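worker-03 picked up job from queue 'complexes'. Input manifest follows; two sequence lines, order preserved.
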Amino acid sequence: MEPLSWIDIIGRMAVQFVPVWIGLALIFGVSIATKSRTGLYGQLFNSTVGMIGFGLVMFWVLTAFLADMIITHDPLSQLIGMKNEPPGTPVPDVEGDYYLLGGDNLARDVFSRLVMGSRRVLTIAPLATLFAFMVGITLGLPAGYFGKRLDTGLSFLSNLVLAFPVILLFYLLVTPEIRETGIPVIMAGVLFLFPIIFFVMLWYSRYHTQPNTRNLLIGTTLVLGFWAYSGLVFNADPLGVFGMEPNLLNVFVSVVFVNSPTVFRIVRGLTLDIGTRDYVAAAQTRGEKPWYIMLWEILPNARGPLIVDFCLRIGYTTILLGTLGFFGLGVSPESPDWGSTINEGRRFLRAYPHPAMAPALALMSLVLGLNLLADGLREESMKT
Amino acid sequence: MLTFLLRRSGVMLATAICLSFVVFFLTNLQPNLEKLAKTEGNNRMTDEQVVSWLSRNGFERPLVVRFGEWIGVVPGWTYEGEDGRIDGRCLRTAADRDTPPRYCGILQGQLGFSSVFSEPVSKIVWEKLSLTGFLMFWVMIVMVPAALIIGVLAGMREGSRTDRSLSSVSILSTATPEYVSGVVFIALFSSKAFGLQWFKGSATKAMTEPNFENFTLPVATMAIYGMGYIARMTRASMAEVMTAQYIRTARLKGLSFSGIVLKHALRNALIAPFTVIMLQFPWLLTGVVIVETLFNYKGFGWTLVEAAGNNDINLLLACSIVAVLVVLITQLISDIGYVFLNPRIRVS
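worker-03 finished. Artifact:
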């Protein structure tokens, strides 16, 4: 069989992505139809930049969800004779079967690995960012609101982490040796407590006058929280729903650890600013408790900048995860995630550029989408 | 101003000590020491042999004592073997083996001995830093003017077509981390597949004889990621200045647009980017590590990777101290510079 031309390759890839196109069309159709009723999310569809960004992000999100339908080969299987073959090479002995983006150094299909890799990137990056936000918010609000010693201490700690070169921290924290010492588990034990604390305080401060609602909400939070906690931190979930390989936990914890001081700083700054507003003074006069003011008066009013930063930070976390993969830290060599694939491909880059180019461009487009989305959100939230 | 400087220096010192202790702790964890013993001795050591190797090399003392040794406030370890051979921390780097000094830590200017390169750490660090300094110099030369020009042109007329296209360029460049642009550049400009073999994909030769061919790609790779961010900050700052009252006044009195931009707006618009550029330095460190690894330029970042990969404790500690100091000093400079550039800010 003849190898495919570039037009054929793009056409065939477009066909493979059909489920994604359908999904995108549905999301855009529904969102644009209801845009006047969905607040900030709807306004996003008034700005071209925002729509492009949202489209790029959703493209990868849907790809991650529907990866099983899109791939053309098993991402781990190796086919004889396909090693380092250029894009569009037909698979020998099978009619109409191609390696759309060529084969990598172990004769695996680059296209399928790219698609499967998106799954890994898109689960870790948003989750790690979310955890970093929980940590940053739970510490940043009281630091900004109470000030004084608490603020000085926490700010010093966060500056300490920020002064630490990220790459050095990764080299020290994400090694197989460090797992033996249990340090990642301890860090996870501390960092993963923050979401639980956050939600308990959230419900407690709001419903402390309605004991029934309060007990129900706090109870549910505690049960769910510690269930997930036992699985994620100690890998000892009795039901086996939650769980993380030690490798992944190590990467996850390091990324959360690196990101949370920056979030802390932003939240602290916003709290300092919003804390001087009249409605905060009104709540204080009403005799509301500090945690109620922080979580139900200040936090909702700080949501604009936080949402924008959340989008940007997912992009930054994606880049960080790629960096980790690029240095071969913490991920198994079989893993199709983009950073490790780039790392594998770079050794043979000058002879066979395609195995590294594909994930590199994919990562760039995802981060670009997130940046554009953040830009669109910022623009639209400033208009109102 | 003086009290401000003193207080900042105090905080800096505390930060540096805390961070170096953290690095010391993490590199001296038991599994790391065992790995070091096995790479230095041999791979099939028994547990007893590992323990004896560690005690022969001064690792059996408590962590805090060893940290004190490294700082130079506790006398260095000495070891006398059964055959009467004497070894010691200070003996290894001493110029005169018969009368070694008692203390040999940072305070005495001794950074110890690197196990990977078999050379004194201070020598390696200086050599590598100068190589990286050269790379950084060219990155700055390319990145800063380009970013400022893009930012000023975009922010000059907010919302215009120039603004839109230049802003898109800067967003694209912030979305392109070094390992992406590096890979793309090497593929495009130095691989056989695309046929454009304009530049060299390796910068190893650039360490001794840098030229356009072998130095362009590493510099461009690093400059691109940082450029977008500075450009966006400059644009935001420029756009804000252009709406100020005095710009309107200048326009009303009939000054030409270029005159307004060059004489009135530019100086005020460049205050914010200055801080951003200074704070960019620590961020560039990650870029340095990636670019030097990718292009095989054996500078500071490459050394850091080697040290970390082989758990070369002394070298890794020295690298981290240098990195932390760079971060802290640039923070200080940015604070001070901000005060000088913007007379409205008072430090006290």
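worker-03 released lock.
The longest strand of chain A covers residues 89-90.
The radius of gyration of chain A is 23 Å.
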